Amino acid sequence: MNFHRSILTLAVGAALCGLGAFSASAQEADAPPKLSWSFHGPFGTYDPGQLQRGFKIYREVCSNCHSIKLLSFRNLAEPGGPGFTEAQARAIAATFQVTAGPNDEGQMFQRPGLIADRFPPPFPNDQAAAAALGGKAPPDMSTLAKARGYEAGFPYFITDAFTLYQEAGPDYIHALLNGYTDPPADFSLAPGRQYNKYFPGHTIAMPPPLSDGQVQYTDGTPMTVDQYGKDVAAFLMWAAEPNLDARHRLGFQVMIFLIVFSALLYLAKKKVWHDVHHDPELEGQRGSSV
């Protein structure tokens, strides 16, 4: 009895500690709101229109400072992505200048991008980026949506396992882009820094990159910071996991195979044991033994 009581005490204590940790985390930085994404869950897929809008935001705004080194121009035309044609992907590549070489004189040179090239970074190296942007190079965005997130704390890390929640990265990116506000009166903000309620510590060097109406959409989608944040977060999620649609499709096919295979095994087992139970020779042996 004392043993069970000790176990219960430990469990309650762990739960209270979890709640305390969550409260402390919430005071440090607000938890981003959980949004509804087309790619959520085992049957989720990317929305090509949203990915094209997100690419437009990256190209016109984010690419001025952030690289996306692991993404190639050909990825834009691959299945499960933004849905660009190969000709469109080639045209997009040609608008970028890519460092190539060396040439016959041993010199590196600039040329228009090819579809096989990766997206060129906005700066030649991290040191140049840091020197141009206040002393710190901005992060590469290739895997940003998978690498960045937030600690939800107890009990959310348990419930998320059942809801298959894996969108902490896109939720965080969207919240960060919409989280610029005036600091509280008692908050000390260093010169050149911005207050963001979703950024750890609330102090961020990056100025608000987006404003309403900044990027022009032609499909009637609202041109607001909220919508911009959703679109670019979805694009960065695709950039970090471009094969998500194929992975979901393969997983669904595997589950169907396992269900059919299990049914066949069950029917085979029933057939085998049915023949064993109704074998005349075995019936005679059982009768004689009785």
Question: How is this structure best described in words?
Answer:
There is one protein chain. The protein is 48% helix and 4% strand. The chain is mainly alpha-helical. The strands form two sheets. A two-stranded antiparallel ribbon has the order 1-2. A two-stranded antiparallel ribbon has the order 3-4. The longest helix has 34 residues, at 244-277. The radius of gyration is 28 Å and the shape is extended.
Describe the structure in brief:
By secondary structure, the chain is mainly alpha-helical. The protein is 48% helix and 4% strand. It is built from ten helices and four strands.
By DSSP, the count of extended strands is 4
The class by helix and strand makeup works out as: mainly alpha
Helix tally equals 10
**Radius of gyration in whole Å, from Cα?**
28 Å
Helix content: 40-55%
User: Termini separation (Å)?
Assistant: 50 Å
- Helix and strand run: HHHEEHHHHEEHHH
Our estimate of the beta-strand percent is under 5%
Q: Main β-sheet, in a few words?
A: 2 strands, antiparallel
Overall 3D form: extended
Strands side by side in the biggest sheet: 1-2
Question: What's the layout of helices and strands?
Answer:
Layout: H1 2-28, H2 48-60, H3 86-94, E1 97-100, E2 109-112, H4 126-132, H5 144-147, H6 156-163, H7 168-177, E3 194-195, E4 203-204, H8 225-240, H9 244-277, H10 280-289
Antiparallel strand pairs: 1-2, 3-4
Helix pairs in contact: 2-8, 7-8
Jot down its keywords.
290 residues; mainly alpha; two-stranded antiparallel ribbon; two-stranded antiparallel sheet; 10 helices; extended; disordered N terminus
